[in-house]
Amino acid sequence: MTGKRPTLMDVAEAAGVSRALVSIVMRDVPGASDATRAKVQEAARALGYRPDSRARLLRSSRTRLLGVSFSTAHAFHAEIVDAAYAGATLRGYDIALSAVANGRSEERAADSLLDLGCEALIMISPTLEEQQLAEYAARVPVVSLLRDDVGDSVDSVSSDDRAGMHLAIEHLTSLGHRSIAHVDGGEAISGPQRRAAFREEMERRGLDGRVVPGGPTEEDGLRAGRKLQEELPTAVVAFNDRCALGVWESFRDAGLRVPEDVSILGYDDSQFARLSYVQLSSVSQDAPLLAQAAVDRAVDRLEGTTPATHLVRTPHLVARRTTGPVPG
């Protein structure tokens, strides 16, 4: 370690624990077992780790920074980030961003925000386990955005997938569709919930709920679209807008017209759906409202004593040119 001062991450790697646990031990606050404390302290001694008093001094002052972690793979996250800036400004706070990308883990994204002195974390579609999220929540308020199964110590703001799928199926059946397929999101955040909601809604109406494996990207939609053509439905509900665009492209390659031959409905009402040459019908989660709610939860936790809360927002449907009456 010559020439380089040992860091919390160095201690974490040496002890085989997370950086958040090392921080808990070094600050001597609850959240780590006696065995973990002993292991971390031994690793720190062996490395010659010394807490950075300058960083501790900086952290003692208010930064009024809210840290937001997001994935570069999801365009919808960017829309939430845009809205979060406005929401934070209204509450007298600023936003610091940290991306989850190829080669950059969610833990690293969150740790870098804490290193910047962020007073709370807003994590968009976090994939960490509940215990990992709880470790961060032991340090600062944490708000999970778009995912609600995060335990009792973490706030969450999410959209009602069951209500969203009800709106999608209600719209399509009102146009006369009965043969409706769902291209699912696999194990992506909200994928299992939307898949279950689709099946429940179709079963409630006495319709066959056909599900085709998909995913969150255009490539996933392309593959699913080719599979759908083996037994073409009259309408498709895709996991998200990007997936819907892939399905649409596969149909276009096959000479099928949308919506004359088959209707397509997306989810998220992202900027792609709203493009003038796309005009994709979609279930809107309303990014500005979700972002504002997440910012409000983070600030309320910082400025009050309210416990962690799980908020669920109701989406709405935006009908555009990709859905139409069932083919005659």
UniProtKB/TrEMBL annotation:
GO molecular function terms noted in the UniProt entry: DNA binding
Taxonomy of the source species: Bacteria, Bacillati, Actinomycetota, Actinomycetes, Micrococcales
Organism superkingdom: Bacteria
InterPro entries attached to this UniProt entry: HTH_LacI, LacI/GalR-like_sensor, Lambda_DNA-bd_dom_sf, Peripla_BP_I
Protein name per UniProt: DNA-binding LacI/PurR family transcriptional regulator
HTH lacI-type domain span: 6-60
Organism, scientific name: Paenarthrobacter nicotinovorans
Pfam families with a match to the protein in the record: LacI, Peripla_BP_3
Keywords, comma-separated and alphabetical: DNA-binding, Transcription, Transcription regulation
Gene3D superfamilies: 3.40.50.2300, lambda repressor-like DNA-binding domains
